[in-house]
Amino acid sequence: MINNEFIDSLIEIANLKGIDQEIIFESLESSLISAYKKNYGTSQNAKVTINKETGETHVYAQKKVVEDVYDNLLEISLEDAKAVNLTYELDDVVDVEVNPREFGRVAAQNARQRVIQEIKEAERDVIYKELVEKENDIITGIVQKKEKQNILVDIGRLETFLTPTEQMPNEVYKHGDILKFYVVEVKKTSKGPNISISRTHPGIIKRLFEMEVPEIFDGTVEIKSIAREAGSRTKIAVYSKDENVDATGACVGPSGMRVQSIVSELKGEKIDIVKWSKEPAEFIANALSPSKVVSVKINEDEKSAKVVVPDYQLSLAIGKEGQNARLSAKLTGWKIDIKSESQAAAIEEEVDIIPSGDIVEDTVIEENTVEISTDAIEGEDA
């Protein structure tokens, strides 16, 4: 009923798609049973056996051995059962072979459709299992084409879209470009696995450093936090558990090779590697790199910090359009107010706190009046 070439084709398809052969044969057997029942219009129990080497197929109607037969489709007498095999006893199940030629064409069509469907389902499951293990990891994909604002990417077993929000603003995606993508999420749907990929997610920075820096991969150096404005600049805070290992140096690599490899993958995105510290003031000062910091005063309750930098470093500390300050705040989790030394000095001199009840020009300063500019006081006529 099923020739050897058909069996060989099924096995080859299963191997190519990474599908368990048992799934294919179980599907084939199930489809033949379904065809048998459909052909005979019965709910009779049936069994199919397929020789995986030769393709030889046998279909059996399964009947229970009883003393008195009331349903010929489901039951068989003890006498008739012993005619098949003398070992049968009451309540045993006898397999009575059915001539498959009587429904061969129906069975073949049904089997073909069922097996094709099962192969598709099995392949989807295999792909999903492969991809779900890649969630929060990096995969390599090949850019195919642009469809409206989406970029179609071939990631091996399937294709997916890189949506506009996940595209780097400074990147131009061309057919054939080979890029690394961060797997944000993998969902199982009726149409197969749905995978969301990104070039802007901060997670891609973490995984690229884990791939490039052995000390991060083995746990000697730890990434504490990442702040990123994709396509422009990233700040990454690192810490070494080993006092003898320089965390920032390990990430930069010999002659900057490690970090440069990541910068190249991200098409020139700037990366600042700073040393993490459990002391907030020190961590904030490090985060504002490459700017120098004179002092940091922190307010634990408000989780804010007032930072003073040299006058000539103010623009560097704040960064273009406030980027350096903004990324530093994201990296540390603290609100940061940056002043130059001259600005800080001017603020300190600008305000005097005058105690309640003091008299200035014969005027009593009432309670709750807290600040009077010294410049204003000195400028009045005595």
Automatic annotation (TrEMBL):
GO molecular function ontology, one term from the record: RNA binding
Any one Gene Ontology cellular component term annotated for this protein: cytosol
Domain of life: Bacteria
Database matches in Pfam families: KH_NusA_1st, KH_NusA_2nd, NusA_N, S1
Similarity comment text for this entry: Belongs to the NusA family.
Species, as recorded: Clostridium cylindrosporum DSM 605
Keyword Transcription: yes
GO-annotated biological processes: DNA-templated transcription termination; transcription antitermination
Protein name: Transcription termination/antitermination protein NusA
Record keywords, A-Z: Cytoplasm, RNA-binding, Transcription, Transcription antitermination, Transcription regulation, Transcription termination
